[in-house]
Fold this sequence. Notes:
Helices cover 58% and strands 0% of the residues. The chain has a domain at 3-37. The model has no long low-confidence stretch (mean pLDDT 85). By secondary structure, the chain is mainly α. The radius of gyration is 18 Å and the shape is elongated. The longest helix has 15 residues, at 20-34.
Amino acid sequence: xxxxxxxxxxxxxxxxxxxxxxxxxxxxxxxxxxxxxxxxxxxxxxxxxxxxxxx
Length: 55
């Protein structure tokens, strides 16, 4: 990782009271959700629309 990027991420993490690893995980999670590659937690708990087996 570029040293300037590392310093900027470390400062940002510190400003938000997170560890650097926690900040990176947070940012990756946001990026994945924004690109719809990771479901939000509330969507994980919703039942999927599968064919009903009820008579």
